Structures are given as C-alpha cells and as structure tokens.
C-alpha cells in the first residue's frame, strides 16, 4: 500500500456519492507498498479502503473484481469490492482505475503462531476447493514458462556459482514438470505472504491484495505459503508450522499423487520465482516510483536451502479427503 496520486476530500466525497456507504467524513493516505495508491476512507457509516491502480495490466482488473466477488459470495474472509447502486464496482478517480473495499480488522502476523498457520492452511484449502469452479481465466504470469524466459536477464549480475545454480534448476524444473500430467487447476491468490493477511490474535480478519491473482496450479499457491509462513531465517523449513499448514489444507483438499511427487520441485521453483522477480526489480526493471525494492537475498537463501536440504515429508491426507485426490482435477 502507498500513495502515488494524492487525492482531496472533495474528490473522494464526490466519488462516494453513487455508493450506498454513507457520507464522507475523512481521508487518510496509507504509506508503504510498491504499485498502487491506497487510502483509508471513513464515512458516517463505515470504514473503507480506496485503491487507485497506478500501473500493471489494467485491462485485467475485471478478472480481479469477478474473482473477489466470487470468493466473497462464499463468505470467505476476503473483501469483495463495493458496488455502486447500479452494480458497478470498477470506477475511475483522478484518471486512474479505482476500487472501493470494506476495511478489514487486524494486523499482519510477523511471527505467526501455530494456530494462525492452521487457519491460513484451512482458509487456503477452502478457497482452492471453491476456486476450481471459478469460470474466469488469467494465466499465471510467474509460472515455469516465465522463469525459463526471464532468468537469462539477470545471469550477468550474478556470481558464477549462482548463475550455474539458477540455470541448472530451471532445466531440472522443466524436466520434472514434463514428466507429470496436468496438476489440479483453479484460481490462485498468487502472493499469499503474511503481509497479505490481517489477524486479530489468532482470528483471521481477512486476506488482501489479490492483484497477483491468476488461474493455474493450485500447488503453486500452497508452496508460496509454506516458503513464507514456515521458513526459518536460515531458509530451512520449520516442521511444526509446515505440518500444521499442510494438515489443515488437506483437511479441505487432499493433494493428488502428482502433486505430492512434484512438491519438492514446486517449493524450490516458487522460491526461485521470488529470487528472480526481486533481482529483476533491482537490476533490470526498477520500480516506476522512488521506492526501495525487496532484498533478493532472502529468497536466494530460501532457494538454496530447498536445493540443498530438500523438503520435509508431506503428512498424509485425512481419510475424509483422501478420496478427493482422484477427482481434484
């Protein structure tokens, strides 16, 4: 979240008029973030979040609106966009696309408890159960084909050891995925880090920031969660957090045999995905705004740990969901 386009009270008050959200009271810019301008808006009836989309593929915004509406309709802890009295959610403000959301309670968990890990695993499993039936489509912009195409752009900035590690890993990933059938597909969050969740104690207030959302391998989402939520500072996996998340997830959706076989590869690939994307921002495509990019070192450490130590054994699925693995596609 951040503010790149300033707004005035009068602008926002006028913007709110078509919505049934009450009378404008106050506006507060939200610091932080890398892409969009974000504001907290208070009316005499509710608290809202207003987002202006500054860059990115703006023609894909209807996909995100449809996905959030779909998930919100099933009462997942996900903020569906606020629609105006005519049923329209996506608007323009200050010549930028704009969406309005209810403001959710909670804070980002810095050091998640086992209960918070259980809750995120359970919620992601519920979401994937439902998202397999979502009719929208947006190809995963950070999948293996992206890694294959983009990793060459950063090799010249790396030490020889890291160049070899990255090139060999991409080759290995291609072979390992080609040896398996299509994995279970559905809509993904695509970036479910701790800072895209809000907790009040152990209660999940909501999952936010779906702007990396797409459709693709459900396992991709789960691997992102494990790499962020269940990883120690040295890059190794924390067994207690890992097992709690996986057990809660599989209570909702059992992993298939192909998913289980590809699990170490997917964990390593998603770690490389973030190492590469951060390297690209530092060396190739710096952010449009004057912001400090994420440090690539964190995910270099995680990726090297996955390559060196592999992963932990996957817990077996509960008997009540194990039969789903044959029909999850």
UniProtKB/TrEMBL annotation:
Superkingdom to which the source organism belongs: Bacteria
Organism: Halomonas piscis
MF terms in GO: homoserine kinase activity
Keyword Kinase: yes
Record keywords, A-Z: Amino-acid biosynthesis, ATP-binding, Kinase, Nucleotide-binding, Threonine biosynthesis, Transferase
Protein's name according to its UniProt entry: Homoserine kinase
Keyword hit for Transport: no
A Pfam family matched in the record: APH
């Amino acid at each position: 979240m951040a503010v790149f386009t300033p707004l005035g009270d009068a602008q926002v008050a006028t913007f709110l008029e078509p919505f049934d959200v009450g009378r404008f009271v106050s506006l507060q810019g939200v610091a932080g973030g890398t892409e969009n301008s974000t504001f907290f808006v208070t009316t005499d009836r509710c608290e809202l979040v207003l987002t202006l989309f500054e860059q990115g593929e703006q023609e894909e915004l209807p996909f995100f609106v449809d996905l959030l509406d779909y998930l919100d309709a099933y009462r997942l802890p996900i903020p569906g966009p606020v629609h105006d009295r005519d049923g329209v959610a996506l608007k323009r403000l200050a010549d930028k696309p704009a969406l309005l959301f209810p403001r959710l309670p909670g804070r980002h968990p810095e050091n998640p408890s086992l209960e918070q890990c259980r809750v995120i695993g359970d919620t992601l499993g519920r979401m994937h159960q439902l998202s397999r039936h979502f009719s929208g489509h947006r190809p995963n912009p950070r999948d293996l084909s992206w890694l294959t195409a983009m990793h060459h752009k950063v090799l010249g900035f790396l030490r020889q050891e890291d160049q070899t590690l990255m090139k060999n890993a991409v080759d290995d990933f291609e072979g390992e995925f080609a040896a398996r059938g299509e994995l279970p597909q559905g809509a993904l969050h695509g970036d479910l880090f701790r800072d895209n969740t809000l907790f009040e104690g152990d209660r999940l207030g909501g999952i936010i920031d779906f702007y990396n959302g797409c459709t693709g391998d459900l396992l991709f989402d789960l691997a992102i969660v494990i790499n962020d939520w269940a990883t120690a500072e040295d890059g190794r996996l924390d067994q207690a957090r890992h097992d709690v998340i996986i057990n809660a997830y599989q209570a909702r959706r059992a992993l298939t045999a192909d998913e289980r076989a590809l699990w170490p590869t997917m964990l390593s690939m998603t770690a490389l995905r973030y190492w590469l994307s951060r390297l690209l921002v530092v060396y190739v495509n710096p952010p449009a705004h004057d912001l400090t990019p994420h440090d690539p070192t964190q995910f270099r450490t995680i990726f090297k740990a996955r390559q060196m130590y592999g992963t932990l054994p996957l817990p077996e699925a509960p008997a009540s969901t194990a039969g789903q693995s044959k029909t999850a596609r």
